[in-house]
Amino acid sequence: MNKGWIIYSEQDAYENKAYINWFIHETKEQNLDLTLILREQLQVGLLQNQPTILVDHSMVELPVFAVVRTPEPLLNLLLEEMGIAVFNSSHVARICNHKALTHFEVSKLQIPMVDTLFMKKINLRTTPPMSFPFVVKEATGRGGKQVFFINNQIQWEDCMNQIQSNDVIIQTTNVQIGKDIRIFVVGKEIVGAVLRESNSDFRANYKLGGTATWFELSSNQINMVHKIMNHFDFGMVGIDFLIDHDGNLLFNEIEDVVGSRTLSAVSDLNILQKYTSYIKSKISGMHS
């Protein structure tokens, strides 16, 4: 039986215990053996000039595959270097865990998006980079955190003090505030889409108190998502779009370590059954 690791930080593993158990159950159904490994247990790096992975400071038998559920592209890369099939790949993790890189990459596909500036915290000035209102996002932020809606000079200067990461993006706000579409993708398949809305926050994230409803994609919207899917080699991701005032979708971001609470809330789709089946087919292809 092919052995795999699912890697979480300790805090995220605690918060996602039911999801991890579901994942392990679905891998068993595919005749795969999945074990939870905490990131805090791992010592990864270069020992005696060789890529090395230790678990609790000991050499262990390495898995055939790893599902990395912590945003750390270098970890994905090192696992790949040691011959492990990694989901998502280090390429996907590197780009999709950095909002500026994601926008730059997706812009090559002529996908519409809001105007976006790439900035460094150390280069920000009290003079705002564009006219109010605008949104500031830390490039490596997740889950709607480290996102600031700026209406005036006081908020801008306050935001400059709160930003923790050096890389930020700054975006125009000519969209329907508090609404977005998340599209769940496994491999080259669109599994489903949800409309996320919030009446109390400019961010539509479900975990921040937003609501979710099933969203039926039009053929044009499906074609746009296929363009993105065909450009990357995704395992499982969420592709997020904002909505302009005419109802058109504008690319927003790609979630590498995507959860599926909203999809489970609005449908009976078993995305982890699809994902574990996809993982099995990928590792079978590697060893055939």
From TrEMBL:
User: Pfam families, from UniProt?
Assistant: RimK
| Residue ranges annotated for the ATP-grasp domain, each copy included | 103-280
Q: Which biological process terms from the Gene Ontology are attached to this UniProt entry?
A: SOS response
Q: Which residues does UniProt call coiled coil?
A: none
Q: Which InterPro entries match?
A: ATP-grasp (IPR011761), ATP-grasp_RimK-type (IPR013651)
GO CC, one annotated term: cytoplasm
Show the GO MF annotations.
Answer: ATP binding; metal ion binding; ribosomal S6-glutamic acid ligase activity
Alphabetically sorted, this entry's keywords are: ATP-binding, Nucleotide-binding
Tell me which PANTHER family the record gives: BETA-CITRYLGLUTAMATE SYNTHASE B-RELATED (PTHR21621:SF0), RIBOSOMAL PROTEIN S6 MODIFICATION PROTEIN (PTHR21621)
Q: What is this protein called?
A: ATP-grasp domain-containing protein
